[in-house]
Amino acid sequence: MRNKPALKINMPENNIYILIIGVASTALLLYDFYVGCLFFLIFLYIVFHNWKTTNIRRKEWNNYIQNLSLDIDETTKKAIMNLPIPLCILEFDGKISWYNNKFHQMTETQDLLGENIDDIVKNLDLRKVLNENKEMYTDVKYKDRDYTVVYNVVKNDQEKNAKYLMMLYWLDKTDYLNLQQKHEDEKNSMMLIQVDGYDDVLKSASEDKRPMINVEIERILSNLENASKSALKRTSKDKFFLVMNKKELKKLESEKFSVLDKIREIDYGNTLPVTISMGIGVDGDSINENLKLASGALDLALGRGGDQAVIKTKDKSVFYGGKSKAVEKTTKVKSRLIGHALREIILESDHVYIMGHKYPDMDALGSAVGIYDICKSCGKNANIVLDSTNESIDIFVDRIESSDYYDGIFIDSEEAIRSCTRNTLVVVVDTHRPNFTECNELLGISDKIVVIDHHRRGVEFINDTVLLFHEIYVSSTCEMVTELVQYMEDNVKINKLTAEGLLAGITLDTKNFAFKTGVRTFEAASYLKKVGADTVEVKKLFNSDISDFITKAEIIQSAKIVYGKICLAYTERVADNINIVIAQAADELLNIKEVEASFVLGKKDDKIFISARSLGETNVHVLMEKLGGGGHKDIAGAQLEGVSLKTAYSMVQDIIDECIKEEK
């Protein structure tokens, strides 16, 4: 450690010494007059010399400061004049009072003094700067160059009245943005391509034409490879891998992926259309992440029926295409495998909870009751989670509750959450969106989740399922459950009322076997009829009262036809089952000549319900998806919250207008 001095002596200033000398010389006069006078004269000289020296030093210091200030001012002026970025000084009314050479070169205007900056450069919000008491920035484009303008307010105190001026620094960032854009354009995107139903398509053509279909598919994709300067690799008979940069991908987006249409035009006598599904991953943190995004995008495309391209980033998914209807698969092998796997999962579980979507319909409840009978045949206890009913299922619910066979079948969400464990099996039917389920919390509690659904896949999806049965070509979830019952390893016995509920669900989603009806749909209906379903009792499940007929009549009367083929209507009538009424009205509107699609809106509480129907030409699923809904190509819907009925009606009109423009 350093030793501190024991005593610190503070030496006094010169004035103190002079004062001491003055006092001493005065005191000396009392003892020796002559010697005292001598010392007093010396004292007076010292005082005079000190004053003179101090005065000279003060003047020299002032001169030094003044010269230094002048030097700084001169340097500042030269620095501003030769500033390597454009700079201008404005009055508060926007008039230019000064500018440097770079600003003059930027504007290429002869005389700028006194000109208003708004007449030279647009989009400069000077008023906003005046209201802010800090440095501000704004981006402007001027003569094909991009600038960041830095605003700085300064105060001029040299005048009698303080004057405020505004300094604008123009930072040219064009080269940086161009480099950034080039980097963005050169990013790689991964694309997985799969021919939809490749084997079935080839089988639908004569044997001598099959190689030509294969060659034509490869030719179109090779042309895409050459046109986009990308790299194409065939990985299997029906799958391709393509790498292209983001700039070329944007071109494909601007063309709405016209390659989908070119593939669809392949015709060599094949009765099934040739279509492809494309999954594109882009903007991932690595090439591996882009590949994972592409794989997820392809799953989305296939889950939505194929014949479309899906671009997937970390934040969102964008869909293109989806014009073809899903083709029914003739094989029932998957139903057999799923049925066997479901039986094993049920036997391994402590308990089974079954739930559909909120505001359940007959397809959701009918399929749930079908799963209930499967569990009962396996000797496992099961419950259907149901918080509230509506008119579409009230009759069926009353019949179930009055039957001893279904004793204690329904429980509410609160009870299900309390008793649900990790080993509880949760079966979700007729939806794949977690937020649409009757009790979303169960998905986070249970480790065993099974999803059975037929809707086209959306961005939201229940992940981490132990079993997924998702077939978008099937008419209804009730048809899928009927096949599970029919082809399970053990012969499952179902109740007559269960069979009627399953048949009602099929009847509802096929609109009396008119839409999305395939051979397997009639086979399922035939099986249900065989096990005791009464078609008259099924029809009674859809009975409604006179007020519903009046509401539907009002909707039909107020309907408006736009673009000569789309029917648009709404009702302000208040009803608990308004979502069912507008769906039935949308079906009725399709009976009008030349109408290809219908959209009907209704309001219940704070929600706006939209039902959309199509004869196949207009993809209502894509339109409803833009409003947060979904469904199928010809049957879809959406729910809106926080908007008025009039606003929702305008929103539907806007998406129809957008759709028509894209078609043109």
Automatic annotation (TrEMBL):
For phosphodiesterase activity, probably binds 2 Mn(2+) per subunit. Has phosphodiesterase (PDE) activity against cyclic-di-AMP (c-di-AMP). Residues 186-314 form the GGDEF domain. This is Cyclic-di-AMP phosphodiesterase. GO terms for cellular component: plasma membrane; ribosome. Its main location: membrane. GO terms for molecular function: cyclic-di-AMP phosphodiesterase activity; hydrolase activity; ligase activity; metal ion binding; nucleic acid binding. The keyword Transmembrane helix applies. Its cofactor is Mn(2+). It is a multi-pass membrane protein. Mn(2+) 2 binds at residues 363, 430, 454, 509. It catalyses: 3',3'-c-di-AMP + H2O = 5'-O-phosphonoadenylyl-(3'->5')-adenosine + H(+). Mn(2+) 1 binds at residues 357, 361, 430. It holds the Pfam family PAS_GdpP. Keywords: Cell membrane, Hydrolase, Ligase, Manganese, Membrane, Metal-binding, Ribonucleoprotein, Ribosomal protein, Transmembrane, Transmembrane helix. InterPro entries: DDH_dom (IPR001667), DHH_sf (IPR038763), DHHA1_dom (IPR003156), GdpP-like_PAS (IPR049553), GdpP/PdeA (IPR014528), GGDEF_dom (IPR000160), Oligoribo/pAp-PDE_c-di-AMP_PDE (IPR051319). Belongs to the GdpP/PdeA phosphodiesterase family. The chain crosses the membrane at residues 16-48. Its EC number is 3.1.4.-. It comes from the Bacteria. It is found in: Cell membrane.
